[in-house]
Design goal:
The chain is mainly alpha-helical. Helices cover 74% and strands 0% of the residues. Helix 4 runs antiparallel to helix 5. The longest helix has 24 residues. InterPro entries: RNaseH-like_sf (IPR012337).
Length: 132
């Protein structure tokens, strides 16, 4: 929803953050790129939504959508989930790239998967949860 909203010509012209990427269901790397942009550009996204919400020049429908998106991203859970997803997908990115190599053998692939699995399990500790 955020991607489609920011791509509207009347909204896009006001956006000063990094370009959001469109999510594709089958591309994990695309999800990581999108989450990275949302986390890094959060202040710009927040400012844009606030500006659109309060600008009479935008139609009522656009302003209502901006209000809804602003409420959604203002929730503490949004930032927490964005940072959590960013961390998990960042762990998967190197093995994802390596597993697609032509010279990948089964033993190395299993070792990579086990290593990532251990890293994800470590994320479930109290210290990691608090750090997020």
């Amino acid at each position: 929803m955020l991607y489609k909203f920011i791509r509207k010509p009347t909204v896009a012209i006001q956006y000063k953050g990094k370009t959001l990427k469109r999510l594709l269901d089958q591309r994990w790397t695309g999800h990581l790129a999108t989450v990275n942009v949302v986390v890094k550009s959060f202040p710009n996204i927040y400012t844009l939504l606030t500006k659109v919400e309060n600008t009479q020049g935008h139609g009522a429908e656009v302003r209502v959508k901006a209000t809804g998106l602003l409420r959604a991203i203002s929730q503490r859970s949004f930032r927490f989930l964005a940072q959590s997803v960013q961390k998990v997908l960042s762990l998967f990115e190197p093995p994802n790239r390596l597993l697609q190599a032509e010279n990948m053998d089964l033993f190395t692939a299993v070792t990579l998967v086990n290593s990532v699995s251990e890293c994800v399990q470590k994320l479930r500790t109290e210290n990691e949860f608090t750090a997020l």
